[in-house]
Amino acid sequence: MSQVFLARADVRGALVGLVLGLALALGLPALPGVGAGLSLRTLTVCAIYALAAAGVGVLYGRLGLVSIMQIGLVAVGGWVTLRIYHATHLPFEVVMVLAALVTAVVGVLVGLPALRLSGLSLAIVTLMVAGALEVLVTYAGFPNGGDGFLGRASGGTLAAIMPRPALGQSDDDFFRYVGVAVVVVLALLRWLLMVRPGRTWAAIRQGEAGAVSLGVNTVAHRLFALAVTSAVTGVAGALLAASSGILDPASFKAQQSVLLFATVLIGGVFSLLGAVIGGLLFYGLPQLLSTVGVDGNLVFVVLGLGLVQAITTTQAGIAGQLGGLWRRLRQPRPRRPREVTA
Amino acid sequence: MSRLTLSGITVRYGGVTPLDDVSLAFESGVCGVIGPNGAGKTTTFNVLSGFALPVAGSVDLDGDDLLAVPAHRRARWGLRRSFQQEQVVRTLTARENVLLAAEHSGSPAADVDRALDYVGLDRPHRLGAELTMFERRLVDIASCVVGAPRLVLLDEPAAGLDPAESEQLLGLITRIPEEVGALVLLVDHDMDLVRAACGTVAVLDFGRRIAAGPTLQVLGSPEVRKAYLGIDEEVTA
Ligand SMILES: Nc1ncnc2c1ncn2[C@@H]1O[C@H](COP(=O)(O)OP(=O)(O)OP(=O)(O)O)[C@@H](O)[C@H]1O
Ligand SMILES: [Mg+2]
Is residue A342 domain-resident? Predict the structure, then answer.
């Protein structure tokens, strides 16, 4: 069943997602009642984390690779963004692309030793890297316009923030800016899944020996996947830095990477809709619970239950169940009374 | 036409020696590699694909040292293979499966449709998951003939098929040498299929070559009959 959601041939589904995504990105701020449960600022951050979630989802769903360092890579993207901005004052879009490239290099460097071994070794190495990155950003802090390589200004008065991009000054415009950026990046990722790299990743996931016998250099293609997903995660870091102009090391704890992996599993790893759901669960759910006055730790209980549900019932997650519902709604009368799956 | 020579190949996995100083020569057409379960047939294919590294011996195809080519470069070099358990990618369409084989072996994409026509698979835009076992075996064959293969290895290509389907597959396999000019090695337990497809066979037993030569002559020899009687006893016991 889950295989249906992995089908790269589904061009129409991708186009529907693209149109709906753009409509949502541009139209949501104008809708009345937005901000009732979750503020537009919260939804903006959810959309940003959807990119990090997409990185996790593609690695796991398409290649069977477990990466537990994605939040650390968001921090890398954010750090590089702030560092380059304060040093050069280049336009945000240029800084964002540079940050994505640097984050891709970091991702590949982490994967290089691990991918020669097994999928499990990547999980262990990335978890350790997540811990190391947490320590590093806690110690070094994020650049705020000061001198030296770390770019830290000592006294509070000297600290500078990075302004939002020209096209996204107000909260409404910044949501639209982030929304369009997220949709564009997800669309590029979706395209990549439908062409040669996506085909190759599918073959690797199906079986190492089969892929090699077709002529696939599996290490090179896994590294390429790591580069692409890390770049996407670096974009998330850049957008996060732009949203408030400064970043707080406390947001990038290693446990957050574990939490993100869990929310992506719940959202669904076989479609990019799952990544969007993952972003909402990861950042939106805790906010929602705290606004209605529920203890923050309950998040772990809710997500724990969700994880058990996702793993035991369907591997396609919430996105997969929504997809199944959609297909059933479109075919009101099945020809056979009920398909028996043996 | 190609000539493939394996000389003194020995493979060890810990205490097991699945191939023990095996020398084989194959020349043109479809050649059989037979033997009881665990004889070392798949291991022989794994040596040729680069999945099993021999501790001794060499492999030569028309003057090229095959063992010097890294496993993932061998498709580009002209090697194709199918597996005992077919490896059709479930999440790609049949056509995408063959396209993948073309892309990574450096073959023109235009060749994909020729390969699909060759096996006669209809509606190639269905997902691998939606294909029948027979159709997946057809995709396997199509992936093996795409581009300009020099050596095609088929490991029990008819496993899990009914007699009519095996018959149809047999026709496709026997035409591969004339269609694309490749040498074909065929592993199968179905002796009728082997007799119909292969001009020559090599017989392995417990990692050693026990016979080789023209098919009818080899299958009639007492030693080969004994090797197969061994299986029958195991099965009925
Ligand atoms: N990776 C491995 N590690 C250890 N032993 C192995 C490995 N691969 C194969 N063997 C052993 O080598 C021997 C030969 O196996 P092989 O798969 O080549 O047999 P085969 O002739 O293909 O048999 P079958 O007809 O059952 O497919 C068997 O005893 C098998 O258990
Ligand atoms: Mg075998």
Answer: no
Which residue from A minimizes the CA distance to B79?
A213
**Buried/exposed code over B222-233 (b: 16+ C-beta within 10 A; e: otherwise):** eebeebbeeeee
* Residue ranges around ligand 1 (CB below 6 Å): B 13, 16, 18, 35, 37-43, 84
Chain B residues near residue A8 by CB distance under 8 angstroms: 91-92, 96
Q: A17: domain range?
A: 2-330
> Shortest CB distance from B89 goes to which of A4, A202, A213?
A202
Task: Classify A275 in phi/psi space as left (phi over 0), alpha (psi -120 to 50) or beta.
Answer: alpha
**B236 band by pLDDT with thresholds 50, 70 and 90:** very low
Distance, in Å, from the CA atom of A287 to the CA atom of A299, rounded to the nearest integer, reads 10
Residue A314 — pLDDT band, cuts 50, 70, 90?
Answer: low
Nearest to A213 among B81, B90, B91 (CB): B81
Specify the pLDDT at position A177. 95
The Cα–Cα gap between A90 and A315 comes to 43
The whole-angstrom separation of Cα B101 and Cα B146 is: 7
Residue A32 has pLDDT above 90, yes or no: no
For residue A107, tell me if it sits in a domain.
yes
Report the phi/psi class of residue B227: left, alpha or beta, with left for phi > 0 and alpha for psi in -120 to 50: alpha
Report the amino acid identity of residue B147.
G
**CA dist., res. A14 & res. A8, Å (int):** 9
- Tokens 């050069």 sit on residue: A88
* Residue A37: inside a domain: yes
Ligand 1 mean position, distance from CA B19 (Å): 9
The answer to whether the beta carbons of residues A208 and A214 sit under 8 Å apart is no
The whole-angstrom distance between A200's CA and the closest CA on chain B is 7
Q: Tell me how far the alpha carbon of residue A298 is from its chain's centroid.
A: 23
- Determine what percent of chain B falls in helix, strand and coil, rounding each to the nearest 5: 45, 25, 30
Residue A341 within any structural domain of the chain = no
Number of domains in chain A: 1
pLDDT at A339 over 60: no
Q: Which CATH number goes with the domain that contains A255? A: 1.10.3470
Those residues whose C-beta lies under 8 Å from the C-beta of residue A246, and which sit 6 or more positions away, are A82, A142, A144, A159, A161, A162
In Å, how far from its chain's centre is CA A62?
14
User: Atom 2 of ligand 1 has which residue's CA nearest to it?
Assistant: B13
Residue A72, both tokens:
């650390």
Residue A304 has pLDDT above 90, yes or no: no
pLDDT (tens digit per residue) in B12-63? 998 899 999 999 999 889 999 999 999 999 999 999 999 999 999 999 998 8
ipTM score of the complex?
0.90
